[in-house]
Design brief:
Length: 330
């Protein structure tokens, strides 16, 4: 065996005989080697333990990026709930065809949104003054023909028959039914007028308790005894009273053509339509269908102003003038 040895200032080689090594030295070297191996394993175990403890405290240790091909599948994520606000852009694909005519959208755009616009609309409709509103209401109320019950009731001088009393009562109820629309409108108007007077009294210093007591005594009660002076009932009352004014506003909103409103508001009754159909080819048709006079030269029929007497003449003819004269005489 050749062994290289280095000395000070020299470099030489020395032969070494392995047979001269004692067994004790070999055993000692093996023990030293095993000791250092065990110590290295313990150090590796401590290093691994420190890494795990560090990961628990500060999260996983950063790792170098691994170059690999990206996967198409996304990693699993926790369940989330997303809320989406619908808008016209999102609803284009799921749009449902509407049956509403396009004229309705234009009408809704022209509906006033503020009090100032409503006041201007009332001035245009000539319904901003008290006398105009009351006159319009009275004209709507009195446009219904009063029922002539006495002409339909059997003469009391004749002896009653088996069904005579039933026929009399049927005629009486039918007459009341004809008056129901006008009576209901008068009832609603009287209630709203009373509520308005209570408000005026409150603004002028009247006691609130006194006004509440008067309203409790005046307004109708339900079966359970609960008074109706609440917002829902008063709102319904106001809507019912303003129905004629609302119809008058609809009459003036048209673009120079209001034929449908004329027939809707002032057209003949179902019975009158039946009579017109039955007498359409006879001379009586001209008497049943009363038309307004033709417009003068240069005047358009669509520019006729909203005149209650003219509208009443279309339905009841000269009878409306007699009603006005009777009211003036009274």
């Amino acid at each position: 065996m050749m062994v290289h040895t280095w000395g000070e200032g020299s470099n030489h080689t020395q032969n070494f005989d392995s047979s001269s090594v004692s067994p004790q030295l070999v055993t000692h070297l093996h023990e030293q080697l095993q000791f250092y191996k065990d110590k290295a394993q313990k150090l590796e175990a401590e290093v691994q333990h420190l890494k795990e403890e560090l990961a628990l405290r500060h999260g996983p240790a950063p790792r170098p990026p691994v170059s690999c091909q990206l996967s198409i599948q996304k990693p699993p994520s926790p369940i989330t709930i997303a809320f989406r606000i619908e808008n016209p852009q999102l609803q284009q694909n799921n749009a449902i065809t509407s049956d509403k005519p396009p004229e309705l959208a234009d009408l809704l755009k022209r509906v006033p949104k503020a009090d100032e616009a409503w006041c201007l609309r009332r001035k245009e409709l000539q319904l901003d003054k008290p006398e105009e509103v009351i006159g319009t209401f009275m004209a709507f109320v009195f446009r219904a023909q009063p029922a002539v019950i006495s002409d339909q009731v059997r003469d009391q001088s004749r002896p009653p028959t088996d069904t005579g009393r039933l026929e009399d009562f049927k005629a009486f109820v039918r007459g009341l039914r004809r008056e129901s629309e006008r009576a209901t409108q008068l009832y609603y108007f009287a209630e709203l007028l009373f509520v308005s007077l209570c408000r005026v009294a409150s603004m002028n210093g009247a006691s609130r308790d006194t006004i509440d007591s008067l309203m409790d005594d005046f307004l109708p009660s339900t079966r359970k005894g609960k008074q109706k002076r609440q917002f829902t009932y008063l709102s319904h009352l106001r809507a019912s009273v303003l129905w004629p004014i609302h119809q008058a506003e609809l009459l003036r909103k048209k673009f120079k053509h209001r034929a449908d409103e004329f027939f809707l508001l002032y057209g003949p009754t179902v019975t009158k339509y039946r009579q017109l159909h039955e007498n359409k080819n006879t001379q009586k048709f001209a008497d049943l269908a009363r038309l307004p006079p033709p417009p003068r030269e240069g005047e358009f029929s669509s520019d006729i102003s909203f005149a209650i007497p003219l509208m009443m003449t279309l339905i009841v003819g000269d009878r409306y003038k007699s009603v006005l004269r009777l009211r003036q005489d009274v």
